[in-house]
Amino acid sequence: MAARGHVQDPNDRRLRPIYDYLDNGNNKMAIQQADKLLKKHKDLHCAKVLKAIGLQRTGKQDEAFSLAQEVATLEPTDDNSLQALTILYREMHRPELVTKLYEAAVKKVPLSEEYHSHLFMAYARVGEYKKMQQAGMALYKTVPKNPYYFWSVMSLVMQAISAQDDKLAQTMFLPLAERMVEKMVKEGKIEAEAEVQLYFMILERLGKYVEALDMVRGPLGEKLTSELQSRENKCMMMYQRLQLWPECNALSYKLLLKNPDEWQFYLSYFDSLFHLMDKSWSPPNEEEHCVEGPVQTTVAEAVKFVVDRMEEEDKKDSRPLRGPYMACLELIHRLRQRGCPDEEELGDPLELMLQFFGKFGDKPSCITDLKIYLHLLPPEQHTQFKNRLGDLVPLGEVGEDGFGFPGDTKVLQRHLCVCQLSRVLGLQHTLDTEGKLCLITELKAHYHYGLQFGKSCLKTELQFSDTYCLMVAHVYIDLWTETGDENMLWQCLGVLEEGLSYSPSNAQFKLLLLLLFCRLGAFHTYSTTP
């Protein structure tokens, strides 16, 4: 137990057997051992609390609570009793009692750093933000360390976040937190990155974006090192809030040259580009474009930039990055929205998606990547697109059942992606009843074949072919909806139950089963579904 590390002589030897029994789950022996010890040492408060823990774990909650309160009313200050009571109250789900415990301890031992910090954490568990602020400041006055000061500041921020009156947050809590941090800044006492992060959060919530930007650009911003490009991300956020589109564009461009797979920077690059175009912004003749460097303001520059990124990826011997190829589709989408003819310079969306599938079709993310750009294809290209995707999936020879199967999980993932895209495009919905039944037969065959790749999977892991099973269920639901044949629904339930037998942790199977049971009015089954 946690308290064992704090047991001090001479009681260490006496209490150790009780701790061992509790640690091993032998609660009855722990109670007996505590009773023996209390007969010899009636004033050993920790033994009473340990007995209470044993009683609590054996279902005797009232007796345990009564015994614990006997000790709590004495306002103990020894570590053993306090730690044991904390564990007991936690198991009783009574965290508010821990605050009273340490309030009394702090009054008796006002210079204890440990008790002050325990009191602060106890307030944090029950959401007493004002008391957290007071406890944090009391702790800082007792032991002047930066973290304790900023505990108090963070408590003010939490009061602002939880305040029902936003005006109160903006006029009292956040300004006070800002002044407290500024005091430390002026005194040169800012030490940790977390302190800078908190300062940034306060300024952002106050809407002081200029001040936040200046802070991040300044010496304090140099402490933002724990996350990759944390400083740049915060600058980008402030540029967007302040609508400083030249800086936003230049920074995005600069960061994408370093990391061409950072999707959020592509979005900020395109956003800023079109804002600048709408405002007819042009760079100064002689001066530098902006503090972040050169700015791109034309579609031609954006097209060239994206094409260059893709060409660089094509030249690589290692596996290419998805970002540039998705950026090309995103730019086509945005240009088409604006009725801009330059999209033709980027290529045909169908060919670009086929290229993307060829490079990344074996990734589970491929379906979600392409799904958002399928609207770029006209309806008359949907079947052609699906057929050409199928040509890129190297299935094995067709067997007696008329189907070819994947040789490994990467090919399986490619075939899954094609099936999912086919459904998203609506090609499965246009099939007649016989066509849907044939599709179900094919998907079932692939599902059962794919189970061999997951023989070594743990129960908590999903099977590689689970998505086939899920698609079978949805096609059955389509048939039930269209024909009203309840047999389709029962077939669907059977497929999902089979899927759960192989993949008991699949949440999608469970949720769909719950939905269908509710539709059938089978609420008892619904309530007992694992």
UniProtKB/TrEMBL annotation:
Is Repeat given among the entry's keywords?
yes
Compartments where found:
Cytoplasm
The name under which this protein is listed is N-alpha-acetyltransferase 25, NatB auxiliary subunit
The record lists the lineage as: Eukaryota, Metazoa, Chordata, Craniata, Vertebrata
Q: Which family does it belong to?
A: Belongs to the MDM20/NAA25 family.
Q: What is its main location?
A: cytoplasm
Q: Which SUPFAM superfamilies match?
A: TPR-like
What are the entry keywords? Cytoplasm, Repeat, TPR repeat
Q: What does this protein do?
A: Non-catalytic subunit of the NatB complex which catalyzes acetylation of the N-terminal methionine residues of peptides beginning with Met-Asp, Met-Glu, Met-Asn and Met-Gln. May play a role in normal cell-cycle progression.
Tell me what organism the protein belongs to.
Oncorhynchus kisutch (Coho salmon)
- Record's superkingdom? Eukaryota
Q: Could you give the subunit structure recorded for this chain?
A: Component of the N-terminal acetyltransferase B (NatB) complex which is composed of NAA20 and NAA25.
Key word Isomerase present: no
Any Pfam family matching the protein: NatB_MDM20
Cellular compartments per GO CC: NatB complex
